[in-house]
Amino acid sequence: MKNPLRKIYPYLLRYKGKIGLSLLFSTLSILFSLVSIGLVIPVLQLIFGVNGSMSDSIAGTTLFDQIKREFYRQIEIRLQTTTVSEALLYVVLWVLAAFFFKNLFHYLALYVLAPVRNGISYQLRRQLHAKLLELPMAFYARRQKGDIISRITVDLREIESALITLLEMVFRDPLMIIGSLAVLLWMNYKLTLFVLLTLPFVSWVISRIGRTLKRQSTTAQSQLGSLMSHIDETITGLRILKAFNAEHVKQSAFERINDAYYRTSNRVMRRFDLASPTSEMLGAVIMAAVIWFGGRIVIASDQFGPANFIAYILFFYQMIPPSKAISRASYNLRKGAASAERVLEILESSNPITSPPDAKVITAFCDCIQFHQVSFGYREDLILRNIELTIPRGSTTALVGLSGSGKTSLVNLIPRFYDISSGCITLDGRDIRTIELRSLRSLMGIVTQEPILFNDTVRNNIALGKPDASWSEIEDAARIANAYDFICQLEMGFDTIVGDMGSRLSGGQRQRIAIARAILKNPPILILDEATSALDTESERLVQEAITRLMQNRTSIIIAHRLSTIRHADKIVVMDRGQIVETGTHEQLLQFGGIYSRLIKLQEF
Ligand SMILES: Nc1ncnc2c1ncn2[C@@H]1O[C@H](COP(=O)(O)OP(=O)(O)OP(=O)(O)O)[C@@H](O)[C@H]1O
Is 3.30.1120.10 the CATH classification of the domain at 368-604? Predict the structure, then answer.
């Protein structure tokens, strides 16, 4: 399978300039790093004592040789005019300067890379959030909330670190290795060729260790997702858990997931941690071989000399950290690939509920909504079968039926929260799948059973569907929804933050804000899922009054739980196991003596 990280690479393109600059700084840093070690040779030679002219011993004609010869000549001039210790000070100051520039450029390379690092997560986070808003409801039915959150947080961090590792691995580390190798070859090619022969063996060992890491890492990430979902559920349902003394049920379920995550994380971490010691050990083995092999060369020839040999070892040592980093990088990349797969699964999920290119933008609802032989299922099995229904403009249609009979599923089809399996739903004679989706939804207002409020101000919650509404429009909507008085009594009035899901408000207050929201949007079609939770009489009266006002001059589709509220509906549709079994007015259905009249009798007692 192709590495999923490949699809993330294009995100780096936006930062070409910065990456290039960072590469330039890295190159300079590497150059100074090599120079700083090269400068150690004269230090050592001064300490060991110089035999003859240092500059004359350099025979080569390359630019590198010329610079070196000139530098040695400067030392010799100082040796002739001053003491050895002053010549030493001269060299040491050069060493210090080289180290300073090495580190300065290293920091600058990281400095320009910071916005690249954070920018990748930034872009992906933005796209993921937009995608989450776009994806259809069906996408969420199959997934855990915590798992999605962990993909946006933890997995993004893994991708970020993998990509940065990649940048270092592709540019900086190889450059360091190549630079050091070039110097090593220049210093002693025989010894260096011997070192090069060992490299394929080293990379084989490293890739073997990394092989299972990606699989284990995927498991760990999805376990972390379950963990987050669990915590989310615990906090949401805390009241019930406490009331039922069921804390231990949740705790032991949590411990099971936590244990599994702990064990997988241990395995991942152990594999990951194996990278560094393995490569260090391999480095040490090669180093030992170099010392053994090279030591004999030094003994055999007096050309190479002890100072050069020590410098050779230092140059060689320079290669170990980047080689270690490369081996570590291969693990990081595997972890990153596992995370990229999880993130791409969201980004690449297709959304079947979209408008076709030639979709019609509608601005008004004139005639009726019709269901023609509509069948629907969330999966293979059908939940709704052969639905035939006409909802004329300006009418009130009530859906009744036992719990699970399919009422909510039916109304969810009108704003295309789900698409039907067969048949057709039309609005003014036009298949709703050919209508531009936003314009279709803009005709509808929805008040759900459990009002959905966001952790924002009362004002912004009301203005959700009409963000450009004026203050007076918002206040008027609140007045019509019987919400104005209680809002004014809140600590900060319309600017009060309502808490997570509106937790700082009572059930009735939440409902009235949701109604005010629908009133402000002023849609021609209203879908109302009547609240089942009982409110106290006064609150109930205020909510009911608000609903009656909301329904005025609109086409309303109500899912009714309390039959007393829908007696005056133009049409009552009785559903049973996914089918429409009776339709008519209250009086007609009572006379018919079917399910509706039985339900009425049940509610009277
Ligand atoms: N997201 C979903 N995924 C799969 N099945 C679902 C989903 N939502 C509902 N169902 C199933 O569809 C059937 C109809 O559910 P629906 O919510 O439409 O009934 P309802 O009449 O509105 O019930 P209630 O009055 O209790 O709200 C039920 O059997 C339910 O299990």
Answer: no
Q: Where are the domains of the chain?
A: 4-213+273-347, 368-604
Q: Which atom of ligand 1 is nearest to the CA of 410?
A: 18
Q: What pTM was estimated for this model as a whole?
A: 0.75
CA–centroid distance, 383 to ligand 1, in Å, is 8
CATH of the domain spanning 4-213+273-347: 1.20.1560.10
Whether ipTM tops 0.90, in short, is: yes
- Hey, which residues does 580 pair with through a beta bridge? 575
Half-sphere exposure of 311 (CA within 13 A, CB side): 24
Is the CB of 405 within 6 Å of ligand 1?
A: yes
Using the 8-state DSSP alphabet, how is residue 403 labeled? T
What pLDDT digit, counting tens, does each position of 369-378 carry?
999 999 999 8
Cβ atoms 146, 228 nearer than 8 A: yes
Place of tokens 């005056």: 568
Instruction: State if residue 408 touches ligand 1 by the CB under 6 angstroms criterion.
Output: yes
pLDDT digits (tens, 9 = 90+) for 332-353: 888 888 889 889 999 998 888 8
Ligand 1: distance of its center to the CA of 406 in Å?
6
Whether 276 and 206 have beta carbons less than 8 Å apart is answered as no
Given a contact cutoff of 8 angstroms between Cβ atoms, the answer to whether 425 and 413 are in contact is yes
The helix (run of H) or strand (run of E) holding residue 272 is helix 247-300
135, 139, 380, 409, best to mutate for ligand 1 pocket (most atoms within 8 Å of CB)? 409
Residue 401 in contact with ligand 1 by CB distance below 6 A: yes
